[in-house]
Amino acid sequence: MELYQHFRKEEEAFIDQVLSWREQVERTYQPKVTDFLDPREQQLVTMLIATKDSDVNLLFNGGHDFVERKRAVLGPFYEDLQQVDAGLTLLEGHYPTKFVDLSHRDVMGACLSLGLKRKILGDIVVGNGRVQLVVASEIAPYVITHLTSIKNTSMRLRERPLNDLDIKQPVWKELETTVSSLRLDVIVKEIYRLPRKEATDYIKKLLVKVNYKPVDDVAFTLQAGDILSVRGMGRSKLVEVRGRSKKDKLKVTLARLQ
Questions:
Q1: Which ranges carry the RNA-binding S4 domain (predicted)?
Q2: Structure confidence by residue, pLDDT tens digits, 99-119
């Protein structure tokens, strides 16, 4: 299929799913609310749905302007998607910072240990003795009932209004530079200022993610818009490829989350 030529091989199954959502809306004239999508998946949905000749409207909602994970709402072109319930519930609990230090990974691990899938969980905010997590409304009662401890610390979750979600606007520091290629090891080395061997080791140990999925291939070719993370070193992205320099190197804009 010619459409697949514009995307990576590993994205084909998701593309098929998005096309099936579009077909469902076109056939039934009923809105469709998806599971939570990461930013790369949101980008793919936008590319496939929000075309100039599309009869399907698209809206993303994660409970806050600055969240990363959002549910897509698809509907007929005449539908006001702002009025469609995206099925978002904010849960909040507290813990004593004097005795325990919780992290995003701790909360995520506790959720996954209950058998919850990542796709029904939105953003998670942890800090200052408070845990906030956005979940699909249909599983909120289950989470409240069963997520009663995190890292051996008792937790009592309650529903809160979505506008209580405490997320700060992300700040990205950009860097314009030149690189020999768009290989993953080259870009990781450049963004995180690492020796090439150390960048390679991080990748081979599955400590590097591209678009939220671990990648162990040092020669993996990146594209503009790809989001990277290195465990313990934060998040970054390849913002733009601006052409070639006089020395035939690639001119790129990189960014690192502050």
A1: 182-244
A2: 899 999 999 999 999 999 999
**What is the pTM assigned to this prediction?**
0.89
Q: Are 149 and 155 in contact (CB under 8 A)?
A: yes
Indicate the length of the chain as a whole number. Answer: 258
pLDDT, tens digit, 9 for 90 and up, residues 222-254: 999 999 999 999 999 999 999 999 999 999 999
Structure tokens belonging to residue 55:
């009869």
Beta strands 149-150 and 153-154, pairing class: antiparallel
* Residue among 43, 82, 93, 89 at smallest CA distance from 237: 43
Q: What is the secondary structure of the chain as a DSSP string?
A: -GGGGGS-GGGHHHHHHHHHHHHHHHHH---EEEEEE-HHHHHHHHHHHS-TT-SEEEEEESSSTT-S-EEEEEEETT--GGGS---EEEEEEE--TTT----HHHHHHHHHHTT--GGGEEEEEEETTEEEEEEEGGGHHHHHHH--EETTEE---EEE-GGG---PPP-EEEEEEEES--BHHHHHHHHHT--HHHHHHHHHTT-EEETTEE---TTPBP-TT-EEEETTTEEEEEEEEEEE-TTSPEEEEEEEE-
Question: Can you identify the CATH homologous superfamily of domain 172-257?
Answer: RNA-binding S4 domain (3.10.290.10)
Domain 88-164 indexed as CATH 3.30.70.330:
yes
Exposure string of 130-157, with b = 16+ CB inside 10 Å and e = fewer, is ebbbbbbeebbeebbebbeebeebebeb
CA-to-CA distance for 92 and 164, rounded, in angstroms? 9
- Between helix 12-28 and helix 39-49 the angle, nearest 10°, is 50
Do 18 and 51 contact (CB within 8 A), yes or no? Answer: no
